[in-house]
Amino acid sequence: xxxxxxxxxxxxxxxxxxxxxxxxxxxxxxxxxxxxxxxxxxxxxxxxxxxxxxxxxxxxxxxxxxxxxxxxxxxxxxxxxxxxxxxxxxxxxxxxxxxxxxxxxxxxxxxxxxxxxxxxxxxxxxxxxxxxxxxxxxxxxxxxxxxxxxxxxxxxxxxxxxxxxxxxxxxxxxxxxxxxxxxxxxxxxxxxxxxxxxxxxxxxxxxxxxxxxx
Length: 214
Prior knowledge:
five-stranded mixed β-sheet, four-stranded mixed β-sheet, 4 helices
C-alpha cells in the first residue's frame, strides 16, 4: 500500500526476517514455511503474502509504547519493525514528507500521540494526510488478561474505532484514508489457528509487522 507518491509498504515480519508486502485489497492468504528447518513445509494462514528481505534493508525496532519518525525521501531501504501486536496496535501516520510509526500500548494516551503528530508532521494540508492501523484479534486473550479494563471498557474493535475517530476528528485525516486491519488469531471454533510455539522459527509470523520505505 503506498502513501501518496512514496513507495511505502505495510508488511508482516517473521523471526527470520521474511517480509510480506501488503496490498490494499489483501485479506488473508496461505503460505508455506519450513518451521523447524528440516525441509518440511507447513501451510499457515497469514495476513499478507511473503518475500525474503532485501540485502540493503536497514531495520529499526519499535517496541511497546515507542515510536520513530522517518523522512521518507531520506529513508531509502529503511524498515520499521513493530510488534508484537497481541493486543498492541500499530499506527502509521504520514503527511507525504515524514512518516511516524507507533507501537500503541494501553498506557499510551491519544493526547500523547497528538503531540507527537503535531511536532513531526505538517497538518496544514489535510488532503495529504494518510494513516494506517493494524493489529491482531484474540478475544480469549482480551478477556483473560483483562484488556477491557485497560481500555476503558472497550472491546478490541471498539478501541480501533476510537483511534480512527481520533485521527479523523482531531488530526483531520479523511476517514477513507484511515484503513485498518484486524487479523483474527482464532478460527470459528474459538481455537488458535497457530497455537503458541507451533510456528517454530517463525513464532512471530502473525504478530509483528514491518513498514518498508523504498
